Amino acid sequence: MRFSNLIKIALRALNNNKLRCFLTMLGIIIGVGSVITMLAIGQGSKNSIKAQISEMGSNMIMIHPGTGQRGGVRQSSDDMQTLKEEDYTTIHDNAKYVTAISPQVSSSGQFIYGNNNYPSQLQGVSPDYLEIRQLKIAEGSMFTDHDVTTAAKVCVLGQTVVDNLFPNGEDPVGKVVRFNKIPLTVIGVLQEKGTNSMGQDQDDVALAPYTTVMKRVLAIDYIQGLFASAIDENLSEEASAEITALLRTNHKLKDGADDDFNIRTQQELSEMMSSTSEMMTVLLGCVAGISLLVGGIGIMNIMYVSVTERTREIGLRMAIGAKGRDILAQFLIESVIISITGGVIGVLLGCLAAWMVNLFAHWPVQVQLSAILLSFTVCTVTGVFFGWYPAQKAANLNPIDALRYE
Fold this sequence. Notes:
single chain
């Protein structure tokens, strides 16, 4: 029997049971739509995380004090005072793989201007901090090395702080704000960066010379951390090893002694976040894939019922010359048509659902061509796999017994 005739017979049979056919497709439609939507959300999240890390500086290196013991009591890194200004100077002057470095000290408090106040954090950094964190000045200017040397009472504000202290749109540059009773002259405003992938407002910040925060705000003689930038993202490990060697020498650590500092690179953070995102994507895909399995079982069930209902028809076809392979092909074609049609509708539904998630929930999504091709492949395999047994059962029927079937 010609293949085109088999397709016509299969389509006619499906057309005679439209509602049952649609309900059978429904499991495939939901399964494919769920898989595409979940994979789109997972891939979108992964790309968003990479973009956010890249915006923060993909070659950034973070150095913080390590944990230690005092009097037999283990201290957290926040309580340690192992990093000094001399460490910053040593790395700045001697590290070959580092292009920029900035100390970091911070204090939380209340910013006040006139009748307006806003709680935020004052970050003490050097001018290189802008390059390291890929920040830009929208208005005014950044403080200078001379301001750092003199511990000048100046600051640069993020847009969120500006919006809360100057709600009427007043130009903040040149104005004096108070931070915990300390007057600071605003000399610049940072360009907006928005919220990062972790939900943190990157504009809720204020920058000042680190010496100003150390001496005038915190009254300390140590730094809380260091931010550095490697020459290139691929040289982050070399820069990290170089910084480690310089700090161990500075801190007079003996061979075999543990480091009293921690070094983390953006590359490590990127790999960790990507790994977590990929695992979540696979998990979401597997959960959604269960719907495909349920849909496949539905196809098998309906095809089995169809074979039972059409037993006499099968016997009649065999009696007038149809071979077993023709009957097998007919029912397999019906099964594949159901699964592929459901797959096409599922792809459209999945793309629409992904678009709606992005539109209403504002989640980053990215529909991948590979996900669509995978869905079609799975649909075809599902149709063949779950339709094979009912089709084989139909092909193996005895024509005489089939004709006698009531």
